[in-house]
Amino acid sequence: VQLVESGGGVVQPGGSLRLSCAASGFTFRWSYMRWYRQAPGKERELVAGISSGARTTTYSDSVKGRFAMSRDNAKNTVFLQMDSLKSEDTAVYYCKAYDTVIGLDYWGQGTQVTVSS
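^ thats the sequence. predicted structure below, dont judge the formating
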């Protein structure tokens, strides 16, 4: 099982980034996918989630209206489009899968997002 995040980097406040998470080794199309983030000295927090068929997306209040999560089940990939970035969005962003077929969670290794002028 692998979840590989990419797309992180350094961006100025107000800028945009698009994160990707490529999945393999499990039944992606039946999995509920989530993005989490963890800033230095803080607990990991849920940012966004998307259902297996992409009919439902949810967002934390802190990112609602600025971030958009999507998925491409043909490519086993989820995305997190992040717009109007703020310094408080600086964190390591992690992709997480919940495999509904066997009831297990899988985590990626994370990608660093730094918002700084």
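The mean pLDDT is 97.
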